[in-house]
């Protein structure tokens, strides 16, 4: 049945390509068949790129901007928490592709959801990064911790349990080293995971929580 639906969609797209209204027709079909998280991610990326305030070295402002990203994701998803968290996890990625090294295959580029390269650069430049007292004061700061935080929040919210995201977080850390995405497992990534788990648990419990409630909590310098 699923394959049949794909065939229908592909055939319709081909037919529309021969009309003068091809773009409008295809866009209409895309909106019907596209998973909601795709459109929310796309619009959230645009929000970060065009409306989020420029990066500052003020931690309180940076935490406020992370709250804005989450609140916008909730607005775009019509307050569907799961979609909002997953979309935020993708929208805050500070890279445009992943190039792990696999045994026998060598370096393989794994593209992330499509994004214009210039737009991606602008979006990444706007990501909050000085979010912890000991965040590196370079151009990247702790921007990579955002995906750990929102990703773990999403897994916790979806699973309703702490062990699953904890196990996934540790697996990802080991995998990053094994696939040469990172030089060593980073305990600060695992710490960001744990904060995300607390946030996801709060949302699962129905609490009116914000990311800053957990990112501004007591932080043990690593």
Q: Which features does this protein show?
A:
two-stranded antiparallel ribbon; 222 residues; globular; 4 strands; mainly alpha; two-stranded antiparallel sheet; 61% helix
Topology:
Blueprint: H1 2-16, H2 22-33, H3 36-50, H4 59-76, H5 81-91, E1 97-98, E2 101-102, E3 106-107, E4 110-111, H6 117-126, H7 145-159, H8 163-178, H9 187-204, H10 211-215
Describe the protein in words.
This protein is mostly helical and 222 residues long. It has one domain. 61% of the residues lie in helices and 4% in strands. It contains 10 helices and 4 strands. A hairpin with a 3-residue loop joins strand 2 (101-102) and strand 3. Helix 3 crosses helix 5 (81-91). The longest helix is centred in the first third of the chain and has 18 residues, at 59-76. The model is unreliable at 1-26, 100-108 and 169-184 (pLDDT under 50).
Provide a short characterization of the protein structure.
The protein is mainly α.
Outline: globular
Count all strands and give the number: 4
Let me know the average pLDDT: 75
Cα gyration radius (Å): 19 Å
The largest sheet is: 2 strands, antiparallel
What share of residues are in beta strands? under 5%
Tell me the span between the first and last alpha carbons: 52 Å
Number of domain units: 1
H/E series: HHHHHEEEEHHHHH
For the largest beta sheet, what order do the strands appear in spatially? Answer: 1-4
Number of helices: 10
Judged by helices, strands and strand pairing, the structural class is mainly alpha
Helix content: 55-70%
Poorly predicted sequence stretches spanning 5 or more consecutive residues? 1-26, 100-108, 169-184
């Amino acid at each position: 049945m699923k394959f049949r639906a794909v065939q229908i969609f592909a055939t319709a797209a081909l037919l529309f390509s021969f009309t003068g209204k091809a773009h409008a027709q295809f866009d209409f079909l895309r909106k019907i068949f596209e998973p909601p998280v795709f459109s929310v991610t796309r619009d959230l990326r645009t929000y970060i790129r065009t409306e989020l305030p420029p990066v500052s070295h003020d931690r309180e402002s940076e935490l406020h901007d992370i709250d804005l990203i989450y609140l916008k994701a909730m607005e775009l998803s019509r307050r569907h928490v799961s979609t909002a968290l997953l979309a935020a996890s993708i929208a805050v990625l500070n890279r445009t592709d992943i190039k792990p090294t696999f045994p026998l295959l060598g370096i393989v580029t794994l593209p992330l959801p499509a994004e214009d390269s210039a737009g991606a650069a602008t979006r990444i430049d706007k990501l909050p990064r000085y979010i912890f007292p000991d965040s590196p004061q370079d151009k990247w700061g702790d921007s990579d911790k955002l995906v750990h935080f929102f990703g773990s929040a999403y897994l916790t919210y979806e699973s309703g349990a702490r062990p699953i995201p904890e196990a996934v977080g540790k697996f990802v850390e080991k995998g990053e080293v094994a696939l040469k995405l990172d030089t060593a497992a980073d305990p600060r990534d695992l710490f960001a995971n744990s904060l995300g788990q607390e946030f996801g648990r709060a949302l699962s419990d129905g609490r009116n929580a914000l990311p800053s409630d957990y990112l501004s909590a007591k932080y043990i310098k690593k």
